[in-house]
Each structure stands twice: as structure tokens, then as C-alpha cells.
Amino acid sequence: MRASVLLLAVGAVAAPSPKIAFAGGYWAAIEFGSRCEARSRPLWLKPGTQPFAGFAFDRWGPPHGQFYVHLGRGARAGASVIATIGDRPFLLAAKGEWAWSANGAQQQAILDAARYGQQMRVDSRDSGGRRIVDRYDLSGAATAIDAAAASCARR
Question: Which residue, 19, 60, 99, 114, could crosslink 92 as a Cys pair with Cβ 3.0–4.6 Å?
Fold first, then answer.
């Protein structure tokens, strides 16, 4: 599983060539030129899906990471996408296969919860009404978040 995090992280984005700044637990920190990310994939992948979640940092943006999720299937229009860390649910902004933190305060709360949490679950419904449930192990998330933030801050 851990090696597959790296393969997903490296293979999911086109140019520039990504550079792995950290890999540990179920998370990796990757540099993509002017963007750095802490990223993971769910514990169980369904055939034909490529879901992942992470925190994105921009070299010229604010010092905190934008939380995002790429769902394995697109959420139906109007469906809620909820990330739950521990017992804390976070209603995300969403469109199609993507969901993200709605504002800076929520972004910081998700980041803090991920640093100290053990597991995260992302739930929604697809266009056919079927449940989408992706579970993430947060082992290594705090270090990957710190490595991604540091990679973008040092330039």
C-alpha cells in the first residue's frame, strides 16, 4: 500500500516532474514546481477508480494548505460530500469528482484534525444514488503536511 501512495502521487499530475520530499505511513509530500502537496489514497481502492485526498500549498499563496479530495466517482449534483476525522464531520464544497475545504477556517480545522487523527472517511452519493465511501489512514499525515509546507516555504 505505501509504495502505491508514491505511484499514485507521481503518476497523477503532468509537468513539471514531481519530486518526493517525504514518504511515510500512508502519506507522501510531493513538489510540483510552484505547488507542493501532502497526499494519500484510500485504504481500499475499487476497480477502475483513482481517489485521493491531500493538502495543497502554493509557493505564493497563504502558508496553510487547501484540503481537497478527488472522489473515485463523481458526486451527483447537489449531493453533500463530508469528510469525517475522528468524530468531527466537515461539509466540503464539491463539484463532480472534486471536493475541497469551503473556507480558511474550515481548512485550518481539517488540517489540525488530520494532524492528530487516526482515520478519515469521505462520504457522498454518486449520480446513481450509490454511496461513495473512501477511508484514509492518517499515519504519516502530519509529517507529510509539514514537509509539503516547508518545501513551498523555502523558495
Answer: 99
Instruction: Supply the pLDDT for residue 154.
Output: 66
Tell me the average pLDDT across 59-70: 81
Helix axes 104-116, 141-153, angle to 10 degrees: 130
Does pLDDT of 28 surpass 80?
yes
Q: Residue 105 is inside which H or E element, if any?
A: helix 104-116
Single-letter residue type at 65:
G
How many angstroms separate the CA atoms of 58 and 151, rounded? 10
d(CA 91, CA 93): 7
Residue 122 CA, chain-centre distance (Å), reads 10
What superfamily would CATH give domain 2-153? Invasion associated locus B (IalB) protein (2.60.40.1880)
Q: How close are the terminal C-alpha atoms of the chain, in Å?
A: 32
Are the CB atoms for 67 and 111 separated by under 8 Å?
yes
Please tell me the distance from the alpha carbon of residue 33 to that of residue 127, in angstroms, as a whole number: 35
Q: What residues have CB less than 8 Å from 3, skipping those under 6 apart? A: none
3-state DSSP helix/strand/coil % of the chain, to nearest 5:
25, 40, 35
